[in-house]
Write a structure and sequence with these properties.
The complex is a heterodimer. By secondary structure, chain A is an alpha/beta fold. Helices cover 26% and strands 29% of the residues of chain A. In chain B, the strands form 2 sheets. In chain B, strands 9-8-7-10-6-1-4-5-11 form a 9-stranded mixed β-sheet, with helices on both faces. Chain B has a two-stranded antiparallel ribbon with strand order 2-3. Classes of the chains: A alpha/beta, B alpha/beta.
Chain lengths: 343, 304
């Protein structure tokens, strides 16, 4: 366990695959920059991989001051032990005060292993991070500038704020899509620091036999507008109306878990706690009651339109525009109005 | 070649069916008001271990940490085919975060001793952290394979599996011993075996026996109750129906690494999710209403 280092940097684990940085890494760079500025320290990123040096510039453009590049042939494909050990070695070497990791398949595999080795705290799947002074109510001790790690718990029924008083670094994994992606800036100056680490045979515990990556067919995260349907859509045929509306606006089609579970649409369209988290410019929720698990995946959208026959549906609580009515009538009206506006 | 497996399981509140009655006025969750279930993905971890034993031989030991009531999930595991069940229950383990929990589980696994594989569900539905499995593997000093979709086969102390990697899958080989976390898509848990239920429905942990005796003998002295508990526990042991109960001393745990003391993460604040009716602009379901809304969205540059 590591003593608090209040001059320590704010670090991001830079996740890359096949020569590209993961979206959540770019999102986290912006957040790390913001947290570092508030603490008056530098923002760092740890970039492990093989031949990944060219990605460092992009991290700097996203606001990172120090990129710790760990280039090693044994890091070519992600594997738990060599990646976790690389991060542990660097944390012990440079003693950052905060380390954030994307809550991806890789991040959620690696971060617990790192935290366990360091015996530091780790909060999973955060949806927000903040800095504040906190009093330990039991010991009556004040702690300045702690990382507030905010996450849903209990199946999304409560929001918990977690802190780590003194077993640092303060570590958290963060959900994809919840932090806004800041625009890249070529004006930001940063350094690339090459780090040497040893990776012995015992760390290469697994042998990769075959890997298969599905091409992403539905791009919900990149869509500016999402038209999303719930159980209230009723049939696959009715979903075509949603595709028509999405086509008219130039948006993507999403769905709630109820619609996916009842077989109306494919799982890759699912938005919510167990699906994709989105924050488009406009989210149109059609026939979605708005269970907390669904709202967790879309309530950060800039504008939300809810269409539902049930006036008391919880979805209206997060909506900016609410239409109490039958979507089979309302959607054609919307398509017509859009066509008139864009003519 | 036979393989010995240990499966970590958890009894959890049924978070999928939380109602307003389960929330206390201060916004915290009233765990007592919630029904409990076998953590769903742990059932798939158990099935993976049982299927492996059916094919290659060996044993399946189920380990759970929790209050005496967690005897439920251990009985359920025995009904489905587990060979041995151990409940780790100790008030000093309460309020453990994932780091402390994984330390305690790893100590218990070391106390069990011999094993080839440790299976865990990917995550529990009350916390959704998916941290305890990997942290336990680290404490045991063994590699981990997360997100199991399929065990392809075991040969000569090497296991080949297909695991989910988010946008696809990969097939990997790993040398035993290993810790594996299991997804619910990996298999279909077998039902309880009717004959096993008949044979083991009276199986209990000593703490459950003590509670039973307390209820049955409300006016007895502590000594009388203790004697009766001892008698019933001995009878259960005799008929092979005693579920083992361990505490932190039994596993040689360092108390500084357990419970609140061993948990670096502290809960600072809990907020219930309350539906805030902030008010929205209600649009009439008419052409005029919808046309006005679209106009506003164009004007404020939501699109266009």
């Amino acid at each position: 366990m590591t003593e608090p280092n209040r001059q320590g940097e704010v670090w991001v684990f830079a996740e890359q695959e096949d020569g590209a940085l993961h979206d959540v890494t770019l999102e986290l760079c912006g957040k790390a920059r913001e947290l570092a500025d508030r603490l008056g320290v530098r923002a760092g990123a740890v970039l492990p991989g093989a031949g990944v040096g060219p990605l460092a510039k992009r991290l700097i453009a996203q606001g990172i001051d120090n990129v710790y590049l760990v280039d090693h042939p044994r890091l070519a494909n992600y594997q738990t032990l060599p990646y976790a050990n690389a991060l542990v070695t660097l944390i012990e070497r440079h003693r950052p005060q905060i380390v954030v990791v994307g809550a991806t398949a890789i991040g959620r595999d690696m971060a617990p292993r790192v935290a366990s080795t360091l015996r530091s705290g780790l909060t999973a799947d955060c949806t927000d991070l903040d800095i504040a002074d906190v009093t330990d109510p039991k010991a009556g001790v004040d702690h300045k500038n702690l990382l507030l790690q905010i996450r849903p718990a209990f199946g999304g029924n409560i929001i918990a704020t977690i802190v780590n008083y003194d077993q640092w670094p303060q570590m958290a994994t963060v959900r994809e899509g919840v932090m806004p992606l800041k625009p890249a800036s070529n004006g930001h100056a940063g350094k690339i620091i090459e780090e040497k680490i040893d990776i012995d045979d015992t760390q290469m515990a697994l042998k990769l036999i075959q890997r298969h990556i599905e091409p992403r067919k539905v791009n919900l995260k990149g869509a500016r507008v999402i038209v999303s349907g719930g159980g209230g859509i009723g049939s696959k045929d009715n979903f075509k109306l949603l595709y028509d509306l999405a086509g008219a606006i130039g948006g993507a089609v999403g769905a709630s878990r109820a619609a996916v579970d009842s077989g109306l649409i494919d799982k890759e369209h699912q938005i919510g706690q167990t699906g994709t988290t989105v924050r488009p410019a406009l989210y149109i929720a059609v026939g979605i009651s708005g269970a907390v698990q669904h709202r967790a995946g879309m309530e950060e959208s800039a504008k939300i339109i809810a269409i539902n026959t049930d006036r008391d549906a919880p979805i209206f609580s997060v909506a900016h525009y609410g239409i109490v009515g039958d979507f089979k009538q309302v959607i054609p009206m919307m398509i017509k109005a859009i066509k008139e506006k864009t003519r | 070649m036979p393989y010995d497996s240990i499966v970590c399981v958890k009894q959890v509140p049924d978070t999928a069916n939380i109602t307003a009655e389960a929330m206390k006025e201060d916004g915290t969750v009233n765990r007592g008001a919630l029904p409990t279930v076998f953590n769903p993905e742990d059932l798939h971890a158990l099935e993976a271990a049982l299927a492996l034993r059916d094919e290659y031989g060996g044993t399946v030991t189920v380990l759970s940490m929790g209050p005496p009531k967690a005897g439920d999930v251990l009985r359920d595991s025995l009904f489905r085919g587990a060979d041995r069940a151990i409940l780790l229950t100790d008030r000093r383990a309460a309020a453990s975060d994932t780091l402390a929990t994984s330390y305690i589980l790893a100590q218990a696994i070391k106390t069990i001793g011999r094993y080839d594989l440790v299976f865990c569900g990917r995550q529990a539905i009350d916390g959704d952290t998916a941290q305890v499995g990997p942290q336990c593997a680290e404490k045991l000093g063994i590699p981990q394979i997360t997100y199991l979709q399929e065990v392809i086969g075991v040969h000569d102390r090497s296991i080949r599996v297909r695991r989910n990697i988010g946008r696809g899958w990969e097939i990997v080989d790993g040398r035993l011993p290993l810790l594996i976390t299991v997804l619910d898509s990996a298999n279909r848990p077998r039902p309880q075996g009717a004959r096993r239920v008949m044979r083991m429905k009276r199986a209990k942990v000593p703490a459950e026996v003590a509670a039973e005796v307390k209820a049955a003998m409300p006016n007895a002295t502590d000594e009388q109750r203790a004697a009766e508990t001892d008698r019933r526990v001995a009878a259960l042991r005799q008929s092979g129906l005693l579920i083992e109960q361990w505490d932190l001393d039994r596993i040689g745990a360092d108390l500084q690494r357990c419970g609140l003391a061993g948990s670096p993460t502290k809960v600072h604040r809990i907020q219930a999710i309350v539906l805030t009716k902030e008010g929205y602009t209600e649009i009439a379901p008419t052409e005029a209403g919808v046309g006005q809304m679209i106009h506003e969205l164009v004007v404020d540059r939501t699109w266009g």
